[in-house]
Amino acid sequence: MTADEKAQAKTEQAKGKIKKIAGAAVGNESMETEGHAEESKGDLRQAKEKAKDAFKK
């Protein structure tokens, strides 16, 4: 996993988690859903990079 891709995945996960928590705290379902989607996007990016690393070995 390249450092840039890893950092981007972690950033997306963190931003998504913050949005999800903030949306739940203020009762904004749209923000909460958007946060969940962004967090999932980061998870998928991380899984993709791990799969690429597995095939390189």
Overview of the structural elements:
α1 runs antiparallel to α2 (29-56). It is built from two helices and no strands. The mean pLDDT is 91. The chain has helices at residues 3-26, 29-56. The chain is elongated, with a radius of gyration of 13 Å. It is an all-alpha fold.
Summarize the structure.
It contains two helices and no strands. It has helices spanning 3-26, 29-56.
Question: Key features?
Answer:
57 residues; mainly alpha; 0% strand
Helix proportion = over 70%
Estimated share of beta-strand residues: under 5%
SS-derived structural category: mainly alpha
Count of helical regions: 2
Give helix and strand order, one letter per element, not per position: HH
| Rg calc | 13 Å
Question: What sort of overall outline do the alpha carbons produce when their principal axes are compared?
Answer: elongated
Uncertain segments are none
> Which whole number gives the mean pLDDT?
91
Biggest beta sheet summary: none
Give the secondary structure arrangement, pairings included.
Layout: H1 3-26, H2 29-56
Helix pairs in contact: 1-2
